[in-house]
Task: structure prediction
Amino acid sequence: MKYVVVLGDGMADEPIEELGGKTPLAYAKTPMMDELAAHGEIGLAATIPAGMKPGSDTANLAVLGYNPRLYYTGRSPLEALSIGVDMADADVAIRCNLVTVSDDNLPYEQKTIIDHSSSEISTADAAILLEAVRKKLEWEGYHFYVGTSYRHLLIWNHGKTVDLTPPHDILERKIGEYLPTDSKLLEMQKRSYDILNNHPLNVERAAKGLNKANSVWFWGAGTRPFLSSFAEKTGKKGAMISAVDLLKGIAVGAGMQNIEVEGANGGLNTNYEGKAGAAVSALTEGGYDFVYIHLEAPDEMGHQGSLERKIKAIEYLDERVVRVVKEGLDRAGEEYRILVMPDHPTPISKRTHTTTPVPYLIYDSRNKDIQSSQSYNEKEAKASGNYFSEGYRLMDHYLEIK
Result:
């Protein structure tokens, strides 16, 4: 038996008047997922434990079967694993976004955060800008590391797990009340604007109509993570396919193999077919039992507030990933189970994550005779009556672990 998870990051949403009261998932053309739902099981899973913040970190741990209350030590430490940073027990890892704040004559505290991703900046451009920051701000005990796109890392030796605000939670707001209370981190953020705003690369980006990556933004602080082995926990040899450092770091911590796919970039125009094909090859030729395919695009489009592009991301996931995986495994003659779900909602109206339970879909190739009229969306998943109040328990159900 082979197992595939197709994770549409932030894919769930809320009813939207413009769509006739439907969510983007219900409105999008998703014939493949609807076909699987008609022959499978749908329901809801609460991936964010009560009282915890609705991040992709806690949510993806839950989807993989790890209780976030036991295993979560912060987002950035998981990304550090992906980058290859060997944290000491006393180190604190902090996510270092390259963001866009308003380019005006106001004091830094009165500026507005425009874009948490700086127009989805390329890793190559980001590396140039982060090097400019590093040269001026890498003080003793603080070390910058390049990640992917706008997502980077600060290691604070013998640091503190200070409370910091994710930039995507405060888009279009003045930043003053959300700045770090730690004096060194605050000084770094403020000085980064002076270093970056008129950097030649940012001047060039602005001329092209792109948002300047004109400030660092710190958030997601945490200590060294300790995940148990996925293989020992489930008996399955697993692999991860993602363009995002967070997911790669979770895979490293869980002892799963990261499979790199050329052209996978975490955006709307990622290499969907490449990811799906790599998953099929890993399961049919590579000796893997379990593959987790992570698609970041629905979440990014939710943060951007782009309804049209979020719908497109969902339709791409259906046609260019779910369909390719199913047809590939059918051709190989494998028995398999597919789990499709978001990690959390990223509603267009809010442009950030929420804690609402998310819809899941399980299809089992052995159960082709099952037939219903249900489709895959939030409303029908709720109507099914299937509900995992502790979302991390869904994985054992999916893997048929008693």
About this structure: Residues 225 and 318 are 33 Å apart (CA to CA).
